[in-house]
Design a protein that fits this description.
Keywords: Cell membrane, Membrane, Transmembrane, Transmembrane helix. This is Bacteriochlorophyll c synthase. Pfam families: UbiA (PF01040). One of its GO terms (molecular function) is transferase activity, transferring alkyl or aryl (other than methyl) groups. This protein is an all-alpha fold. It has two domains: 185 residues, Tetracycline Repressor, domain 2, CATH 1.10.357.140; 153 residues. The protein has 16 helices and no strands.
């Protein structure tokens, strides 16, 4: 029996097992990645009220972009990457035999239908220009989620297309949608969406370290394949640093002077960490390894590849610093419009 046959030969798993497999293919761990931007966009509106109606709207927004939107993109990815997953991730629901390819097709088709129906209803509920913005954002996110993995475009094959697609999906439409749910689009929200776009782009560039070898064999044009790990670190770190620098300038221009000083301190901390990791991806920032393995490992993943492991350690520190600054900025922006 071949390795592939062993991977796809399993005992019947029953109804509960099928439900678990259907949830697993939606990759629940990835859902939380959109929540900070959704929360920030809502906070920056300065118009969300502490009543049941607005909290239900926010919950619906989390549902659309988390389990439905992000889940749809993950399910589509598993469906079209079956042959690759048989080699690299044979325990996933389809290659392990817990779901057939037809069942996976039904999975993402149903999730897509629910997302479209719920999103359409919410767009009509909000109405006007804001309703159109919400509808367009959702359509953009679902479209990118599909063509990211599906042929013939399959954006993930080229980092020059895949990274911007991820940045738009996770950083731009989430901020704008959440803002439009409760108010007219604040100019500051557009800037914050742009910052999140570039931050997400930088992180996805480094995330490709984990599949560098497979990408090279499969013809995938990740930046690590094209210019090597060292240069990839330089490109990604430069983008991250520019994000913090522009963020600091924006904070100053918005009158948030204390936040600007905090952002500059954050930038210096990030640069020190980056130098440590660039010099030695294996041991740099290694004191954060326990946080990756035991604390955030279930959320951000684990890796045996030195460069990718270094990225995970960096991600823990960088994401905390960026999110703290982002939430402070969102709160200050919201307070400005509450006056």
């Amino acid at each position: 029996m071949s390795i592939t046959e062993k991977a796809t030969t399993v005992r019947p798993i029953g109804f509960i097992g099928k439900i678990k497999a259907h949830i697993e293919i939606l990759d629940p761990v990835t859902w939380i990645s959109v929540f900070p931007c959704l929360t920030g966009g809502a906070m920056a509106s300065g118009a969300m009220q502490g009543n049941v109606h607005d909290y239900l709207l926010l919950f619906a927004l989390f549902l659309i972009y988390g389990p439905l939107g992000t889940g749809f993109s993950q399910s589509v990815n598993d469906y079209f990457d079956l042959e690759l997953d048989r080699i690299s991730e044979p325990t996933r629901p389809i290659p392990s035999g817990r779901l057939t390819k037809q069942e996976a097709l039904w999975n993402w088709s149903i999730v897509l239908a629910i997302a479209v129906l719920l999103g359409s209803w919410l767009s009509l509920h909000i109405g006007g220009q804001r309703g159109w913005i919400i509808a367009l954002s959702l359509f953009t996110g679902l479209s990118l989620g599909y063509i990211y993995s599906a042929p013939p475009l399959k954006l993930k094959k080229n980092i020059l297309l895949s990274a911007p697609a991820v940045g738009i999906s996770y950083g731009v439409i989430t901020w704008i949608s959440a803002n439009a749910f409760f108010s007219e689009i604040r100019p500051e929200a557009l800037w914050m969406a742009g910052l999140n776009f570039f931050m997400a782009t930088a992180l996805i560039i480094m995330n490709d370290f984990k599949s560098q070898e497979g990408d090279a064999k499969g013809g995938m044009k990740s930046l690590a394949v094209m210019i090597g790990p060292k240069n990839t670190f330089l490109v990604a770190f430069t983008i991250v640093d520019l994000v913090f620098a522009v963020f600091a300038w924006l904070a100053w221009s918005w009158g948030f002077h204390l936040l600007m000083y905090f952002l500059l301190i954050t930038l210096l901390v990030d640069i020190v960490i980056q130098v440590m990791l660039y010099r030695d991806p294996h041991k740099g920032l290694y004191f954060m390894q326990n946080a990756v393995d035991d604390g955030f490992g279930h959320t951000i993943g684990k890796s045996e590849i030195h460069e990718h492991n270094a990225f995970l350690r960096f991600q823990v520190v960088n994401n905390i610093l960026f999110l703290v600054n982002q939430f402070i900025a969102a709160g200050l922006i919201g307070m400005k419009y509450m006056q």
